[in-house]
From TrEMBL:
Protein name: Zinc metalloproteinase
Locations listed in the record: Secreted
Signal peptide: 1-16
Origin species: Caenorhabditis angaria
Cellular component GO terms held in the UniProt record: extracellular region
Pfam families named in the record: Astacin
C-alpha cells in the first residue's frame, strides 16, 4: 500500500509564485536494507499514525531511469533535462531512458512539486506542475528521488534554525520531525544555501527562522549548491583514487579524476583559474569604484551565475562593499536575482545571499583574507540588474 501526502508551500512575491515541494511517503515494509541517509527524513506520516523508517534504497548502478508522462511539456522537459545534466556534470550519477525499465521515475504534471525518497520500486512519480518551473526545484525533487531529505529535518538543525511549533498548524508539524543520528548521517555542515532547505516561515509566520539572521533570505535558494552536489557524490560513492591537487575547496571530479570540481568562481583543471562568465579586478590600497550590469535574456527556467573575482597582493586583506544594487527583487530565497559576497574562509559553503534592503547586509563592509575574493551574481529571468561596488586591500 502506498500513501501520498502532499504539502504545498507557497511563496508569494510581486513577480511570481513558487510552490515548494514535499515528499511523497511510501510504505517501505518490503525493503530490508537499512539505508543511511545523509539527511533525516521529513516524516509526513503523522496523519496516517505511522512512522516511516529510513529504509530507502539507492538507485542501482548509480543510474536513475526516467520517463516523461505525455502531459509534460517540451519546456518542462528542457528544464528537467537541465537539472539532470547539472547533476551528471557534478557527480557520477547517471540518468537514462527508462522506457524498458521496471524501476523508474515518471515525471508527471499536476499535484504540486513532489517526490518519493529514494528508489521505491516500480514506476514512481515525480510530480512537477507548472508552478515548479525553476531548475533548482527540479534538482530538489530529483535529489529526493535519489535519497536526500530536507535540510530542515537534519538532527542537528536546531543549531542553525529556530522552529516554533506554536506557529505551525498541527497538520504541518510533522514536517519538523527529526531522525536520530543512528538512522542518518550528515557528511557536511548545515547548508543555508541548500536547495533542500525551505524558506523562512514556510509553514506560517514565525514558524521557521535562521539563527544566523544574515541567512534569512538565503533560505529557500533554489540553485543546487556545491555542497548539494558533493553530498550526492558522497552518498553514491563517487570518488577518485587520488587528488590531482585541487585548490580553493575543489575536489576530484568523479567523471574525470584528473580534473577537479570547483567551488563557485573558480575554473580550470585544479580550480586555480577564472570561472566562466567572470570579471576580474586587481585591488589597490585605495578604494576603486566599479559598476557591472548582468542579466540573461531567457525565461524563468534559466539559471545564470556570472561572478566577480578581486585579486590583491599575497597576504593582504580585501575590503569590499556595495554602494548600490539596482533592479533586485526582495524575496525569500532570492530566486529572482541576488548577489553573494564569498568572504567566509570555507569556499565550499553558500554565504548569505543579498536581494533585499531591510538590513545592513547589502551595504556592509566585508573584509576577508580570501584572495581572490569571489562575488557571485545570479539571475533566473530576463532581468537586467546593476551592481556598483568599491574595493581595496589593506
Ligand atoms: Zn522537498
Amino acid at each position: 500500500m502506498r500513501m501520498l501526502i502532499l504539502v504545498f508551500l507557497t511563496i508569494q512575491t510581486t513577480f511570481s509564485k513558487i510552490v515548494e515541494s514535499d515528499i511523497l511517503v511510501n510504505d517501505l515494509k518490503n525493503f530490508s536494507n537499512k539505508r543511511r541517509s545523509e539527511f533525516i527524513s521529513l516524516d509526513s506520516v503523522s496523519r496516517s499514525k505511522r512512522q516511516v523508517s529510513t529504509v530507502y534504497p539507492k538507485w542501482t548502478d548509480k543510474t536513475l531511469y526516467y520517463i516523461f508522462d505525455s502531459n509534460i511539456s517540451d519546456e518542462k522537459k528542457a528544464l528537467l533535462t537541465t537539472a539532470m545534466q547539472r547533476i551528471m556534470n557534478n557527480t557520477c550519477i547517471r540518468f537514462a531512458d527508462g522506457s524498458s525499465q521496471t524501476n523508474r521515475v515518471k515525471f508527471t504534471n499536476g499535484d504540486g512539486c513532489a517526490s518519493y525518497i529514494g528508489m521505491i520500486g516500480g514506476t514512481q512519480p515525480i510530480y512537477f506542475e507548472d508552478t515548479c518551473m525553476l531548475t533548482g526545484i527540479g534538482i530538489h525533487e530529483i535529489m529526493h528521488a535519489l535519497g536526500v531529505y530536507h535540510e530542515h529535518s537534519r538532527y542537528d538543525r536546531d543549531d542553525y534554525i529556530t522552529i516554533n511549533l506554536a506557529n505551525v498548524p498541527a497538520s504541518s508539524q510533522s514536517n519538523f520531525k527529526k531522525i536520530s543520528s543512528q538512522e542518518s548521517y550528515n557528511p557536511y555542515s548545515f547548508e543555508y544555501g541548500s536547495t533542500m532547505l525551505y524558506s523562512v516561515n514556510s509553514f506560517g509566520t514565525g514558524s521557521m527562522s535562521a539563527k544566523n539572521s544574515d541567512y534569512s533570505r538565503t533560505m529557500g535558494l533554489r540553485k543546487g549548491s556545491f555542497l548539494d552536489m558533493k553530498i550526492l557524490n558522497t552518498d553514491y560513492d563517487c570518488s577518485c583514487p587520488s587528488d590531482p591537487g585541487c585548490q580553493n575547496g575543489g575536489y576530484p571530479n568523479p567523471n574525470d579524476c584528473s580534473q577537479c570540481l570547483c567551488t563557485d568562481g573558480f575554473g580550470g583543471a585544479l580550480c586555480t583559474e577564472n570561472a566562466a562568465n567572470q570579471v576580474t579586478f586587481t585591488a589597490s590600497n585605495t578604494y576603486v569604484t566599479k559598476s557591472i550590469n548582468f542579466g540573461l535574456n531567457q525565461t524563468i527556467t534559466s539559471f545564470y551565475q556570472p561572478s566577480i573575482a578581486i585579486y590583491a597582493p599575497s597576504g593582504k586583506t580585501i575590503q569590499f562593499r556595495f554602494t548600490s544594487l539596482s533592479n533586485f527583487y526582495c524575496m525569500n530565497g532570492c530566486n529572482m536575482n541576488g548577489v553573494e559576497v564569498k568572504y567566509m574562509t570555507d569556499r565550499r559553503i553558500t554565504n548569505p545571499i543579498i536581494c533585499c534592503f531591510d538590513n545592513d547586509l547589502w551595504s556592509r563592509l566585508y573584509s576577508t583574507t580570501n584572495n581572490p575574493l569571489i562575488i557571485n551574481l545570479h539571475t533566473r529571468v530576463a532581468v537586467q540588474s546593476t551592481v556598483k561596488f568599491q574595493f581595496r586591500y589593506i
